């Protein structure tokens, strides 16, 4: 067994509560060695992982990782929010009592790291010195070296973050034990995996995975679930699955900041990383802050609603990322970026990687190419020839500093003032290109009823969206009614309130084609929204928000059919009357939902 005290002494860990916590779980898991890591250890750990075959080289300064084939995504049905109060139970948070889940996880973790190294990762999910930094400090313990390397990219890592805490006990205790992956019964009645956030004890216990949010505990478990609970219990902030961008008008020198939520497959990352259309590039610049998480709070001195991305990196979906959809993402993972690719196709001879959508067609010469499972493409049978080369949830991990259009102030303590909060779901009808909402209660209502079309027809009833409140459905940490009240309280505490808006890039014509070009042209409706906030345009009032007049949109350099433009700027009254009924039914399932008289029920 490791001499934990000597290791912590050598690493300069002085926080007594951290020392006690590390000793407790070193004893429980039976780890043979304990090692405290910092960001400075990255190069050494990369080389160790290469030597051990845990990573493979993917060209100069890039690396390739392959997860166990049944361990490729988050598992919602095994993910739990546990607390000591049943009043925290919500519709979506899969609540269980802490008194049940903690002993269960401790039993699974007992001796499960025998023969392994326990890595101690002190981390910060926030820019240093930020108002919310005290809630962003954590210590992840993991028995998996690649997890350490991902965490170094996704969080700020170093002993100083725990040693300098004003309250030495205010850190998240995050324990990850990989488990025996081939023998965990993934997806069966005997599934051994559990991913538990004990929110009111600020403890995260994950067992049975080495992939993504199941293992990078600073990200979803802390950055979203724990942060949501902390924000509510402290009454200080919101932890949201939001993108965050800046739009600079170079003519005026003003930078606007837009944040907001998008359900899966609704264009969030591409929007967060977009560049201006060529015709508008001389005047406007788009800055990237983050594509996945934003924490929002009110600055008590200025009364402004502020936001920051607590992450230090990007854990992006590789599929369909290319020069057209997201050149910024490609720029962040080029040679010497120190990026890690997971579950894409790989050629060990040439050290190339590829995924569906990277190019129109896969490499013509399949010699040496392996799919995400490690099987040779050249040896596929006729029945396997159309199987994907990369897993649909394949990923790339890179640091924010590598993103070509990263905002100049992305890591500053102050955060940025929020001008607008937008929501967007993938819907082929009912939702126009953009509709602005000036009333806070109406904006929160819209976020709570955010929805997207089901991925497969079997997942939903025809005409009914899969609702994803604020795009936070998988990350709710307490009751949805309490969440709505807390959201209202935070936004209403701001003296300078943001505009809300709903956007939709995915309207289709009767022939099935997209009516709006999307991608870089999505900046155009956001520019209109900023003009509306400034009083420079007035739009068209409708019962569900303000729509742009055609002449108010900056369409310079854009060729779009006049009928298509009319269609994306139109409200379908009959469809919306149906939609309001579905939304009412959706909200009625949540206890304690705030109510306000006078809400329109017809369009």
Question: What's a quick, concise take on this entry?
Answer:
The protein is 24% helix and 22% strand.
Any overview of this molecule?
The structure is a single chain. With 603 residues, the protein is of the alpha/beta class. 24% of the residues lie in helices and 22% in strands. It is built from 15 helices and 30 strands. The strands form seven sheets. Strands 1, 4, 5, 6, 7, 8, 9, 10 and 11 form a nine-stranded mixed beta sheet that branches. A six-stranded mixed beta sheet has the order 15-13-14-24-28-25, with helices on both faces. Strand 16 (294-298) and strand 17 form a beta hairpin. The longest helix has 17 residues, at 218-234. It starts with a helix and ends in a 16-residue tail after the last helix.
């Amino acid at each position: 067994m490791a001499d934990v005290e000597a290791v912590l002494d050598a690493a300069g860990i002085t926080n007594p509560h951290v020392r006690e916590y590390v000793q407790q779980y070193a004893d429980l898991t039976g780890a043979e060695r304990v090692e405290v890591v910092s960001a400075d250890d990255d190069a050494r750990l990369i080389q160790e992982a290469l030597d051990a075959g845990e990573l493979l080289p993917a060209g100069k300064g890039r690396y390739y990782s392959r997860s166990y084939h049944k361990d490729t995504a988050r598992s919602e049905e095994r993910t739990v929010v546990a607390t000591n109060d049943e009043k925290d139970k919500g519709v979506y948070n899969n609540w269980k009592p802490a008194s049940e889940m903690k002993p269960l996880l401790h039993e699974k973790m007992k001796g499960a790291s025998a023969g392994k190294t326990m890595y101690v990762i002190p981390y910060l999910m926030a820019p240093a010195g930020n108002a919310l930094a005290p809630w962003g400090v954590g210590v992840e313990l993991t028995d998996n070296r690649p997890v350490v390397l991902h965490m170094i990219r996704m969080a700020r890592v170093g002993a100083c973050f725990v040693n300098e805490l004003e309250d030495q006990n205010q850190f998240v205790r995050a324990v990850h034990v990989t488990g025996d992956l081939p023998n965990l019964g993934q997806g069966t009645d005997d599934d051994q995996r559990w991913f538990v956030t004990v929110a009111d004890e600020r403890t995260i216990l994950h067992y049975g995975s080495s992939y993504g949010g199941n293992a990078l505990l600073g990200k979803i478990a802390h950055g979203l679930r724990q942060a949501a609970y902390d924000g509510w219990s402290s009454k200080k902030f919101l932890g949201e699955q939001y993108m965050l961008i800046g739009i600079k008008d170079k003519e005026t020198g003003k930078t606007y900041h837009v944040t907001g939520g998008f359900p899966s497959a609704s264009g969030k990352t591409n929007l967060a990383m977009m560049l201006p259309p060529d015709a508008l590039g001389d005047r406007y610049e788009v800055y990237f802050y983050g594509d996945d998480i934003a924490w929002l709070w009110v600055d008590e001195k200025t009364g402004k609603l502020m936001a920051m991305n607590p992450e230090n990196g990007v854990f992006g979906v590789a599929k369909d990322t290319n020069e057209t959809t997201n050149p910024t993402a490609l720029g962040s993972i080029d040679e010497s970026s120190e990026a890690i690719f997971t579950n894409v196709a790989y050629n060990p001879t040439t050290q190339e990687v590829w995924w569906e959508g990277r190019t129109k067609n896969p490499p013509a010469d399949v010699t040496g190419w392996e799919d995400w499972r490690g099987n040779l493409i050249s040896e596929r049978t006729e029945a396997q020839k159309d199987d994907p080369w990369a897993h649909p949830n394949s990923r790339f991990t890179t640091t924010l500093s590598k993103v070509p259009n990263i905002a100049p102030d992305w890591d500053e303590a102050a955060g940025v003032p929020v001008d607008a909060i937008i929501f967007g779901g993938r819907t082929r009808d009912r939702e126009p290109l953009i509709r602005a909402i000036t009333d806070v209660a109406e904006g929160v209502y819209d976020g709570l009823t955010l929805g997207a079309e089901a991925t497969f027809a079997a997942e939903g009833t025809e005409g009914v969206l899969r609702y994803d409140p604020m795009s936070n459905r998988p990350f709710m940490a307490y009751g949805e009614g309490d969440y709505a009240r807390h959201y209202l309280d935070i936004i209403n505490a701001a003296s300078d309130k943001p505009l809300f808006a709903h956007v939709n890039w995915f309207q289709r014509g009767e022939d099935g084609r997209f009516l709006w070009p999307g991608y870089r042209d999505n900046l155009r409706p956001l520019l209109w929204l900023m003009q509306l906030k400034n009083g420079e345009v007035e739009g068209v009032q409708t019962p569900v928000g303000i729509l742009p007049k055609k002449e108010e949109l900056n369409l310079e350099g854009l060729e779009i059919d006049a009928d298509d433009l009319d269609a994306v700027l139109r409200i379908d009254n009959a469809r919306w009357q149906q939609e309001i009924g579905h939304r009412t039914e959706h909200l009625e399932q949540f206890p304690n939902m705030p109510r306000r008289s006078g809400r329109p029920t017809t369009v």
